[in-house]
Amino acid sequence: NTLIKVNSVSKEYKMGTQTVKAANKLDFTINQGELVVILGPSGSGKSTLLNLLGGLDKPTSGEIIIDNENITAFSDKELTRYRAKEIGFIFQFYNLIPNLTACENIEVLNDIVDENIDGQEILSQVGLSQHVNKFPSELSGGEQQRVSIARAIAKKPKMLLCDEPTGALDSHTGKIIIELLISLCESENTTVIIVTHNNEFAKVANKVIHIKNGEVEYIETNENPQSVD
Ligand code: ADP
Ligand code: ADP
Question: Which among 106, 90, 100 has a CA at the least distance from the CA of 155?
Answer without folding.
Answer: 106
